[in-house]
Write a structure and sequence with these properties.
alpha/beta; Trna Endonuclease, Chain: A, domain 1; 2 domains; five-stranded mixed beta sheet; two-stranded parallel ribbon; 61% helix
């Protein structure tokens, strides 16, 4: 008990000594300022001015950053409301979120009776509805990594779903590309194959029906585009 009191007393004396030293340094500094004020006041004024300029510059920089950040957030919010996401955002969506995005894009373009039906027992159709002209459609959605390719059997499954639902139009939407066999099967069987490049166009405002005219063209990144040109360029296709 006595030892504990001794430690408390020693700590109190150290605090008092530090306070006295700080007070003494402050008093000495004040005396020096008074004595040498005529000599040092320009330097003091310079420090104050530089501090004010630096503070103002920091405040302007921070305000500009906040304004830019809020503007980006507002623009992104408006794009989200319009049904648009960056492809990087689409890549990290769940399968259900991707299906909802596709359904929202269809509604944006005037399609009717759009409903997401993906899940177990969907019979190969993730989204169903009608085009603006009244034709019925079934849509298969595959959110794959860009490095993957849609195999032909997946497009054939959609052809079966089209027959099952007696739909006028079948649409396959993916975040990647189609293999050559899958693309050939889609084009030859009247299936609209929306690959990553066309998904980007659709997502950024192109109308769904406008993509029909470019079905089977221009898919993939630069490497895939070069491969596509080597394969189809000799046929005169564009």
């Amino acid at each position: 008990m006595a030892t504990r009191k001794g430690r408390r007393s020693a700590a109190r004396r150290r605090r008092q000594a530090l306070q006295q030293a700080a007070f003494g340094c402050g008093a000495l500094l004040l005396v020096l300022l008074v004595v040498f004020w005529s000599a040092i006041w320009p330097y003091v004024l310079g420090v104050v001015v530089l501090g004010a300029v630096g503070t103002s510059a920091w405040w302007l920089w921070r305000t500009d950053r906040l304004v830019r950040s809020r503007d980006r957030a507002w623009r992104h919010g408006e794009e989200v409301k319009a049904g648009r996401r960056t492809l990087a955002e689409v890549d990290v969506m769940s399968g259900t979120e991707f299906e909802e995005l596709v359904a929202a894009l269809c509604r944006r373009d005037g399609c009717k009776e759009i409903r997401r039906v993906g899940g177990s027992g969907d019979n190969g159709a993730d989204v169903r509805g009608r085009l603006p002209d009244g034709r019925t459609m079934v849509i298969q959605c595959k959110r794959y990594a860009p490095s993957r390719a849609i195999a032909s059997h997946e497009v054939r499954d959609l052809r079966g779903a089209q027959a099952h639902f007696d739909a006028d139009v079948a649409i396959f939407v993916t975040t990647t590309r189609f293999s050559r066999q899958a693309e050939d099967f889609a084009v030859n069987n009247g299936i609209l194959a929306i690959h990553r490049n066309h998904l980007g166009l659709w997502n950024n405002g192109a109308c769904l029906e406008a993509l029909i005219s470019v079905n089977g063209a221009g898919q993939g990144d630069a490497t895939h585009l070069r491969r596509w040109k080597r394969t189809y360029g000799k046929r005169g296709e564009t």
